[in-house]
Fold these 4 entries.
Entry 1:
Amino acid sequence: MKTKLFFASLLAITVQQTVLAQTDANGYTTANVTMGSGYANRVFFDLSANNSVSQVGDNWDIAFYRNNAMDKGVKINDAKNVTVYEASGVAADFDSVNPSQIGTWGTPLYNPDLTNRLQDGAFDAATKAPAGPLNYGWGTYNIGTHTVNGNVTFVLDYGNNNYIKFFITSFANGYTFKYAIWNGSAWNATQTRALPNGTDDAYFNYFSFTTGEKVLNMEPPKANWDLMFTRFYTDFVYPGGSMMYKMAGILQSPTVSVAKVQPETQETSTAVLPTTPFSNNIATIGYSWKPTSGAPHSNVVYYVKQGSEYYRMYFISNGGTGTGNMYFKYKNITSVLGVREVGKKASFGIYPNPTTSDKKVTVLYDVKEKANNKGNVEVYDLTGKRVHQSELTNQAGFYKQELNLSHLPAGNYIVKITFGGQTETKKLIVK
């Protein structure tokens, strides 16, 4: 294979750094994250630890989702200059596929960024396998063997007459696949590999065609990162059209949900959760905090929910391709929202407290485990009289519910929240 195909280094390089806390007058910590010149690295950031892990971005080619025994997910490395084509949906065509046929392969495939699933990849978007409910994109599920068997031959175009053909043979608690490298005039000998899911505490297993092996230590443990600063393709809209364009931005962990608010004043000591819904779309932050060039937008704020913790963040610096700097400020606002655990099944908070002049209070609740009965929220005055009652849904997930307490006179009240047989009370001041 021609040496110019090899964009990757042979070893994964990981740099872990606990960012020195720089706290401003409003209590916000400044996080200085850099992807390096040309966005050469990807960086994982942990909000609770104020910690980043930086790694070389282009030393792998394929990422196989390994967090679930039968949940698909095969991604191409967007940091590389590679185009994925779906050459054939007939397994027997693997041997006859040839780069001269590239004009017949149709539209290239990309990892989706408009998805709630980090694992969704370009290879899952293939369309030439037999259609139906058992279709995995690149292959078809066999009910009898509980295995997904491959149908689709892909060709990866690295440019300058450098190609790799790639076929996922099967998937069941891991992947088997084969590939061959184009030497300029013919395919080299076909290589076959097996990559079991394994016990790695990571979402993906990574494979390099450069080394022909699994690339180790490409992610921090799943619980140790919230935001990934990386390259990804998006359907970029411009006046008169759109195109698939490789961006540098932020993808979020599956454990994180984000609400984007624009416009909103960035520098403030107060914090109130927005009416904008929280989203699990992996690119909710994405590149939306920066214009095509120049400094970040000065009126965009993101609210990040990680477990029972809530953060408010906004970006302050964009270094572009020269440095890859993406500096932002963030603050844990959980205590401001008054979030408390109610047993093991849910966490709740009420805000604002004291109320504002309209006497409307928002109850936020994160249901981690469904209860047999719906929960409820009750408000009592100091004589013990119940003056308000509302029902809470018991569906799993994050919700907000507004209480209109305009009928209550100013004073001190007790809010009682019951869910899953557990009770929590909080003092509420109505102005």
Note: The chain has two helices and 29 strands.
Entry 2:
Amino acid sequence: MTATADVPFRKMHGLGNDFVVLDARSRPLDLTLERRRTIADRRRGVGCDQLIVLEPPTDRQADVFMRIYNPDGGEAGACGNATRCVAHVLMSERQADAIVVQTISGLLDSEKTGTGANGLPIVSVDMGPALLDWRDIPVNEACDTLHLPVALGPVSDPVGTSMGNPHATFFVDDLDAIPVTQLGPQLETHALFPERANIGFAQIVGENRIRLKVWERSAGLTLACGSGACATLVAAARRGLTARKAAVIVDGGMLDIEWQRDGHVLMTGGVAQSFAGTLDPSLLV
């Protein structure tokens, strides 16, 4: 990729969790750390919660390799909402109802499951197994992941879960009373988390209904976090707060999450493309 290259992009979102999607399947893109940061910047670039790059798969079972970058330019292991967006792109291209997305965390089976009342396609993704061992999350010391030794201000006793990336979920009585933007940055970088962590704040609001806000590492507070919704459902089921299937309500809408008996977590929700364009050469210098 050079400063004069025409680089098309899609701006997509899953419940407001938004992405810039670049296609590097037919030609490689030289996305330096600074270029990734600039594209993701909401003032200097296109702006997004994550930058997504489509690449040729390295696994014969996969249809595409999805690389995920956080706004700070660092690489992430999983993003459920982005997976649904990418799956929709591939299924539309191939006129197919199911495809397999490869990530650095594994293969994700995806399928179109219908159309929402707003006309948006509904996509379901198998996010793979929830990992519950302290070494898998990871945390820095052997501990019970159902009760991580972390506390700050009004929150304590989170549940640790890996959905291809680390999550700590705090259950609270009143989500609106929690200063998420104050606590999130401090908890993300807590000494227990060697790779930092996504921090969820969850409130049980009804039978098998959970309200959730997630402070995502590097991205901050987002309208929706797919892997966070999966981690929260697993955490709630482990605590006996919900069944293994529940609606998770985020600021951007609702995701249906199911923790299957084989350990895999299914996430279902709508996807949308906001617009498409070409990156200005000034973003690529």
Note: The chain has four helices and 19 strands.
Entry 3:
Amino acid sequence: MTTTERRKAAAGRVREAEELVARLRGGFAGVGVVLPSLRIDPVSFAGDEPVALVDLGRCNLDTALRLTQVLEGTRIGHDG
């Protein structure tokens, strides 16, 4: 693979990662969860064969609780 082909492939992975981060952010927002550190890990693009890693980041305890409730299928503030 030529340098130009590698750069194009890396650019495609960056675009895909950006789109996925946007989808994750929107999906989380739709269920009331905000992950303030959600981003593409910039270090994952270093090197000759970059890989796109999504960094879900850190969150406070309230956000962690909300996320676990969403994953468990419960809702805050609703009966049953």
Note: The radius of gyration is 17 Å.
Entry 4:
Amino acid sequence: MNVLKEQYEWIRFTREKLFQYCETITAEDYMCELDQFGWGSIRNLHVHVAECYQSWLGNFGLQKGLTLVTPELAGNVEDMRGIFEKVDRLVYEFLEEFEGQWNIGISGPVSWKEEEEELTPLWLYTHVATHEFHHKGQIVSMSRQLGNIPEDTDLIEPERDK
């Protein structure tokens, strides 16, 4: 069993719960820009999360040279689901490529540094997963600020939800 693939399935499970919740709010709220948050809207945060997977796993880890997703490509939750289907394929490709090699060094450029960085596949995977959950919390907070009452999107009692 690949424990990281299993973990990613749980990540996808909680993401789906968030998508299901986002389908209950208005399109205006999904796209509403809030100045208190760096990425502006719930939609933009979703795009940013997808872009992070593309940047770190695709471009840095797999050295693919992917064109990164932009907010204009996602007008609603259905579009975002399509973007994340591609992200899912990328994650599984990354996990297959580095199976059993979680601590090897991968060198590459990082936009905010002059020198190349050396990171491990385990670091890259951990970074994108924790990054997604950080922004999931922001999405829920943004929704509350817009007057919505978010459903629980945490990984609680998964056996009842499967």
Note: The first strand starts at residue 106 and ends at 108.
